[in-house]
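Notebook entry, structure prediction.
Reason for the run: the old model in the group folder had no record of what sequence produced it. Starting over properly, with the input documented here first.
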Amino acid sequence: MVKLRLKRCGRKQRVIYRIVAIDVRSRREGRDLRKVGFYDPIKNQTYSNVHAILYFLEKGAQPTGTVHDISKKAEVFKELRINQTKFNK
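New structure, fully documented this time:
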């Protein structure tokens, strides 16, 4: 099973997180399938590759709570609903 979760990067006291698609059995710093964005909690900046996130969500990937909240602010789930309604018609 694949999850969308945060991977810690940066240095001491200056953390930056990558949003990655990763296998559930992998550890936090383990090998990821694909990098789909990043989150800087200090500057409160977020960059996300919406197409990659939508691809993994459509394939059944589960976002963690924090990634879900970040994606919700970026309105990724709004685009997911729009895409689903296009294909269901």
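Summary: Residues 2-88 form a domain with the S16 Ribosomal Protein; Chain: A; fold (CATH 3.30.1320.10).
The old model has been moved to the deprecated folder.
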